[in-house]
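Table S2 (text version). Query chain:
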Amino acid sequence: MKNKAMKKGLSFILAAAMITGLAGCGVSGSEEKDSSGAGNTTSNTESSADAGENNNIADNTGETRKVTYMVGQSNYIESAFTKIADKMKAEKGIEIEFQVTPDSQGTNLTQTKLASGEVPDIMQFNIPENYYIYDAAKNFITMDDQPWIERLALDKSEITYTDGHIYGMPITGFSGVMGVIYNKEVFKENNLEVPKTYDEFLKVCETLKTNGQTPIYISGNDNWTIQIAPMIFLANALDDKASETYDKLYNNEQSFADIPEFKEALQSYQDWFTNGYTNTDYTVGTFEDSKDKVAHKEAAMIISGEYAVTDIMTKWPDAQIGMFPLPYNNVDKFLTSKYVFGEAIPKDSKNIDTALEVLNTLSQPEYLEIYLSANPLNSPYKDVESVNINSVLKEVYADYFDSNKVLPQIADMIGKFGSLNNDVFFPVYTQVAQGGDIDEAIEQFDSGMQEYGKNIGVEAFQ
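Corresponding structure-token output:
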């Protein structure tokens, strides 16, 4: 992706590339982000001229307070965070330095910082999903008594850890719809209709391939994206048995080898690559590439989430984009994820009080609506409006999410096994795509569950 100079007054740190891994599949729309992975630090001591005469507001010591705020590359929306940082400094005398981490290193960078004690004051990640990966009780302060709790539009139990405490403040509500994002013009030019069955979907892919176009663009370089399609395959194959099956896996009452639908799902996924329905360079394609390709008609479809729809429509407003459920097993439901974007404060932060003030301020309508305007997802608070939700997602929410025509993703369960998803599942999905033996893949999934369940302390695996 192309780099742009940052707006004056906003500190931007792009963390150096380390070890691959991103937890979960939930990411969000993004703007002007550096994907090089090179270290880049700039000062935030000069404030934007937009803040006017209030730039020097400080605490009662006469000094401007500062906090560091770590956020993943795909969740960092420069226009929104710039406005929020300027407003926070002008009104609260708090200077925010953003540390923006490459998506592929998000999990490992977070774990490394927590282990070293050299932490930012605020960390953003998916909650409650990543509580398990980051050992929330050990590493983050509790937020059970924070004033934003009583304003939640969702049940607080849904963001509570297994120990009964809340360790992160949500800045989005639940949504997480995942499916097929497509270019309407490509479909029209090839006389294609939105498929309602899986046979129809395969015919769409065959027609596009025959006409010399890339049916599905896969961004395997950002390996968190490669999991989305297999998760949809599995959820659709199980359909109404999905939640029950995930519970049995978590309780060690069933293995992946015991689930015939899982083998069928992996085989169907592998067939995409065998049949030439994906880009040949899928191992090097990035998430940013995928959005660019479908926006500019270089690929007909990508398999992703609502965050990609928002980003495409923001960056390329002339692109004719739509979204439909992947109709595997002829199931007319979207995959969803049970997490929200949340902000946590490490126990090792040297500015806990200021960080809490930043979060409480960020939760207020006049601040959070800035973020939701640029990243239009459901609001987590009763008094904060969800704004600018685009026409594509409005239709999806109304036709599917609001009527509960959705299925849960297995990643929500796998997240309870620490970094199992990153360390085992992502690489094995890639092996399957490359023609790897599916029975061997399933053995790796099962052995990984046993190993990580024991190491993490999941009761049923002890």
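Notes on Table S2: The CA atoms of residues 177 and 336 lie 5 Å apart. The two ends are 45 Å apart (CA to CA).
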